[in-house]
Design a protein that fits this description.
The protein is an alpha+beta fold. The protein is about 40% helix and about 10% strand. It has one domain. The N and C termini lie far apart (about 30 Å).
Length: about 150
Amino acid sequence: MTFDDPAREEQCLIVNAREHDLLPGVMWDWRTDLDFDDRLSRYGELADCLLQLVDPGLIEARRLSGEDRYEVIAREHLGDVLADAAVWSYTEHGWDHRDEGLAIVETPPAAALRPSPARTQRDGSPVGIASRCGRRVGAEGRAAAHR
């Protein structure tokens, strides 16, 4: 894997996968320049990028079922699961307890590719991971996104 500027979607997914975050948490962190409903209407952009990070084994999606239980969603089913807008919003229980829903998790191979702390940006995302989502965000775009 080569290193280059990540796309905004990729940054958000990578950072949230390191935190074992639920997909609704990703929605709260992504495109903060938009209202939440506008972000939610564009969840397909994140879903496409997520699939591109799942394919090489960098991130896996897990359906949490409480009490530290989860099921890894097989890639052949993940597209259909991500197409359901409900997985991108918190349930009332999920909001309160954060123990149900679909979470994304960084895999050990992805962690091994992670640059040293000196090679990460202030938001914790790696400096220069190759974009798999097509669009690249340069330093100017990142600065604007964090205003």
